[in-house]
Amino acid sequence: MTDSCVPVRCPVCRRDHTYAPPSYPCACGAPVVPPVARGATVTPVTDRTWADEWVTVRCRTCGRRDQWPHPELECGCGAVLRIPVRAVQAPTATPPVPTTPPATTPPALPRSTPRPRPAFQPVPVRTAQDAVTVAALYLRWLGFGDIRGGVKRAPSGVRVAARGLIALIEPSVQPSSLRDVECVWLSAMAESVTCVCFSLAGYEEAARTRADALSIPLFVIDLTGTPQPVNNAAAELTPPG
User: Fold this and answer.
1) How far is CA 202 from the centre of its chain?
2) CA gap 229, 207 in Å, rounded
3) pLDDT digit string (tens) for 92-147?
4) CA angle, corner 98, sides to 95 and 104, nearest 5?
5) What are phi and psi of 136, to 5 degrees?
6) Of the candidates 195, 206, 200, the residue with the CA atom closest to the CA atom of residue 227
7) 3-state DSSP helix/strand/coil percent for the chain, to nearest 5?
8) Phi and psi for 205 in degrees, rounded to 5?
9) Is the alpha carbon torsion for 173, 239, 144, 62 positive or negative?
10) Distance between CA atoms of 23 and 123, rounded to whole angstroms?
């Protein structure tokens, strides 16, 4: 058993598991792994709220604190177990400013080119919640920060709010309909934000036609957990390479 693996006993059927938390890419490119609490009691997931779905994790390389999906394990008995995570320590106090002026140092060289964006790390889709997680991670990778609020049930699918954006995720086997696209577009217009759609089963032809007319990016999430652009608006939103 590696250091990151922890033993987990299902409180429903008493079955023993060995759990290894997933790794996510920090903005600096380093892998980030939620620090699971060894020996803590796991709890079955009976109701989902946005606050419980995400956990703050600190990158050991750059110190950045960010929100990532709360670790979960699916037991063979059907129970979904939420794995406890150690709390992130508060940042240390800023050292006092020295009273004597520091030695003169040469100015830093200007950055001529931005740091390349690390490749998106997919999360395999096995459940509807996995599809929502992939969409949220992809939006963050695209640069939409402050993914917040609740996971709201739309007329169809799940809506996720980010800074300046509303995303509709359809995690079922039903293609997204014209009504789905129009509803999320109207909501975005009412809040003066943009919108984007994700779907596991694709889109009805009328939905694609309307999305093209309204310049709404459409993505399909494949089972590897990689969103694929469906129309030109989505392709323009996706970084090259």
Assistant:
1) 20
2) 15
3) 444 444 444 444 435 443 333 445 567 888 888 888 888 888 898 899 888 887 77
4) 115
5) -65, -45
6) 200
7) 20, 25, 55
8) -60, -40
9) positive
10) 10
Q: Under a CB-based contact definition with an 8 Å cutoff, are residues 4 and 20 in contact?
A: yes
Q: Which has the closest alpha carbon to 133: 143, 125, 142?
A: 125
Start-to-end C-alpha separation, the chain: 37
Bridge partners, 176 (sequence order): 203
The verdict on domain 128-237 having CATH code 1.10.3470 is no
Single out the residue of 184, 129, 127 nearest to residue 161, CA to CA.
Answer: 184
| Residues 81/36, Cβ–Cβ less than 8 Å | no
Count of residues in the chain: 241
Sheet (strand 227-229) strand order: 148-153, 158-162, 165-170, 194-199, 218-221, 227-229
pLDDT mean across residues, the chain: 79
Which residue carries 């739309």 as its tokens? 154
Report how far apart, in Å, the C-alpha atoms of 139 and of each of 37, 169, 204, 219, 226 are.
28, 12, 23, 11, 12
pLDDT band at 155 (very low <50, low <70, confident <90, very high): low
For the record, the structure tokens of 70 come out as 């709360």
In 3-state terms, what secondary structure has residue 67? Answer: strand
Q: Are 226 and 238 in contact (CB under 8 A)?
A: no
In angstroms, the Cα distances linking 99 to 31, 93, 96, 228 are 39, 18, 9, 56
Map out the domains of the chain as residue ranges: 6-82, 128-237
